[in-house]
Fold this sequence. Notes:
By secondary structure, this protein is mainly α. It has helices at 19-43, 56-78, 88-115, 117-132, 138-159; strands at residues 11-12, 15-16.
Amino acid sequence: xxxxxxxxxxxxxxxxxxxxxxxxxxxxxxxxxxxxxxxxxxxxxxxxxxxxxxxxxxxxxxxxxxxxxxxxxxxxxxxxxxxxxxxxxxxxxxxxxxxxxxxxxxxxxxxxxxxxxxxxxxxxxxxxxxxxxxxxxxxxxxxxxxxxxxxxxxxxxxxxxxxxxxxxxxx
Length: 171
């Protein structure tokens, strides 16, 4: 690849630049966001007679994905730190973390109707916040999960008039 287009793919004195993975991921997310956004824009209506159409939410989410991918690529190109070798502890626990994330997704799908959206998403978002940042205190993870669940619930239920499962909470 030409160095003017992708300078983060270059090797500096035999060491890989940390931004290498971030640039690749950013390009993949950018391509995915553009393709899905174009399909949702051309194939589905953005606005229906009484509000947002079936293509509105995918188009908005793909627009956000493209913006975030561009930010990731720009930050990765500015990053010049060299990578450190991964700790053996993280390599050993990687399959356990992946399986636990899959288990939480399955539990989220199973309890979604019975417990309701807010409770299930609060716990699953708290779990994923803990997986992303292992040194975060547990109360901060649950605060992130609660704010995420409540904001999504009120956005869909009251602003977009889309019913989500209430479960055991009297909302």
